[in-house]
Amino acid sequence: MKKVLTLLLGYLVITASLQAQTINSMSPDTAYNNQVIDPVITASNLFFQTSSPSGDIYQIYIKQGGYTSYLFDVFTFWQYSINVVNDTAFIDNYTVPLNAPLGLYDLYVVNNWLYTYVLPNAFEILPPDGYAQGKAYNDLDSSGTYTVGEPGLANILFNINPGNYSVLSDSLGNFSAPLFNGTYTITRINDPNNYYYQTAPASGNYNFTISNNNSTGLDFGLRRKLISISPNYGFQYHTTSGYITSEGLFTSAPQQAYLRHKNGNTVFLTNLSVSSTDYLNFTAPFVSQYIGVYSLFVRMGSVWHQLPDCFTLLPPDGYISGSVFYDYNSNGIRDTNDVPIPNQDLLLTPPVIYSITNSLGQYNFGVLNGSYTVTYLANPNYIPTSPVNQSVVINNNNVNNINFGIVIPPSVDSINASMSSSLPRCFTQVGDYLQATNFSGHPIDGRLYFIKSSSVSFNSSIPLPDYNSNDTLYWNFYNIDPLKSFNVSVNLTMPGPGTIITRTIIVHSYDSLQNVITSDQESKTQTVVCSFDPNDKQVSPIGIGSQNYTLFSDELFYKIRFQNTGNDTAFNVFIYDTLDASLDFNTFKFVNSSHNATVELNKTNGAVKFSFKKYSFAR
Asked: Is residue 6 part of a domain?
């Protein structure tokens, strides 16, 4: 009986071999600090190509004493570029750390079975023969020559060739790149999200030579195409018009222009028109955007231009607020039993600002000091019970309760049906919310029908239905006041994945003789979605021969791979397996997994269960 069983859960497919496993080489085997290289690591019987680009590699790193630099780590795989082809690992764009100690390094490779292999003295970081040094600066006078007082520009990226060597300017705009002896070219790399045009060098780059010396004065003059925005401030809830000044940028109107707050809140500029190649007119409609500083972004063709921190949105001097409500007693005053009305239009003048009431029937205008008129743009089917125009004066204060009451004429008969449905997931319980709203000018009686596909099972509802047969249910309702609703919550069980289901709500209002006065309906057709979990299980060592024989002393590492390839997210994942009877269940040990899991083992029959109850696995 096998004495040792170790289980490892994870995502990647891997294999194993009993042949000799060694690291052979790393190329290039020398570099200098901050150099970008593309290492190629060769091995014998160590790397295995799988469906994953990283093969069976867990980690690759170089180490000198207590200093370690990673070339690959499976837990942060998105930060690396690696591809395994047979026994060769290709790594792209590894940057030798600027602060890495000089000297020899050992190369370490760890596979997914957590075996570690070492190639001593595989790599050496050499001292440079000299440095390329210069400055990135804001060429305020566009002279192409650095002038004292012109600010340095941080995080400007440069590329040095040969060697594909990248360097960034520091907070003062300075850069210093260690190099071997040779002839080089340094070029600035354009940042599409932080665009400058270059005033120096005129040729676009510098050619220079390192010969046991430093090459200095490699200065790059830069200037933004966008110069300013005027005015450089605006007020919340107000529309601002102005112009943008550039260095000959606007040969045509831009494809897009917007102001963006640091938290991502965006205000798109409208009414873009060019008055000359240097000036662009715009309108900025501020509604409920965040107070604070904004940066300007303008897209000309495929190139984005940026002017950072150039515009400030200020709070208004005061606010005008109120509500629109159904005035049951027509007294023009909002009483406690009056119903708020959402989605109603209001107009503030001057200037011209619109607002729409929210779900509580409320509106809000932010304004500067001055005199204003608030106008309720009433639905023609409504009768106002208060003035539709109300005057307000703001002097560093807020004015509240500018309310507007309405009633619906008794002759109006109207009802609305609406249904809110959850995403239909296979074999799960789903809630639907059904609503009949009275838009008549008088209380109504009526009936709400719900018709479902036969593949959908009805579980319960609040309130209980008055009728339930052959996939049709209905509820009677009585004396529903104008603009109030009758609501039903329904609990259903969904069928299997891919099933097309339809649900329909129909509402009627009746007169005293049960004749239908008015009706409305809404239907939804959806496809049931589901997650799908393919599994495979692999073991190392794999053993010898067709029976995969191993020694009794061998420790067996098992990996179970699972992946959601369905058309929806899997929220709770359970993995079941039964261990072979020839294994010693008492030696079972849970080693690791890609997500935290709980493990249950029945040592009588070898049944094991892994539960991932608090994680979602995206499709």
From this structure: no
- Three-class DSSP category at 400: coil
Q: How many structural domains comprise the chain?
A: 6
pLDDT digits (tens, 9 = 90+) for 512-544: 899 999 999 999 999 998 865 456 676 767 666
Q: Following CA atoms 338, 343, 344, 348 in sequence, which dihedral angle do they give, to the nearest 10 degrees?
A: 120
pTM of the model: 0.47
Instruction: Tell me how crowded residue 492 is: count the other CB atoms within 10 A of its CB.
Output: 23
CB 564 within 8 A of CB 610: no
Expressed as residue numbers, the domain containing 600 is: 535-612
DSSP 273-340: EEEETTEEEEEEE-SSPPSEEEEEEEEETTEEEEEEEEEEEE--SEEEEEEEEE-TT-SSS--TTPEE
Dump pLDDT digits (tens) for 74-109. 887 777 788 888 788 888 889 898 789 999 999 999
3-state secondary structure of 78: helix
Whether 619 is covered by a domain: the verdict is no
User: Do 292 and 331 sit in the same domain of this protein?
Assistant: no
d(CA 259, CA 307): 10
Last residue of a domain, one of 97, 125, 153: 125
Q: What is the CATH number of the domain that holds 195?
A: 2.60.40.10
* H or E element at residue 603: none
Dump pLDDT digits (tens) for 123-138.
999 999 999 999 999 9
Check whether 12 has a pLDDT greater than 60: no
Structure-derived torsion over alpha carbons of residues 191, 195, 197, 202, reported in degrees to the nearest 10? -10
Rounded CA gap, 256 and 588, in Å?
61
Tell me, yes or no, whether 618 lies in a domain. no
Q: What is the C-alpha to C-alpha distance for residues 140 and 138, in angstroms, rounded to an integer?
A: 6
% the chain with pLDDT above 70: 86
**Residue 617 included in any domain:** no
Domain boundary, last residue among 125, 148, 169: 125
Shared-domain flag, residues 422 and 392: no
Please list the residues that pair with 325 across neighbouring strands.
Answer: 340, 405
Do residues 392 and 336 both lie within one domain?
A: yes
* DSSP per-residue codes, 546-565: TTTB--TTPPEEEEEEE---
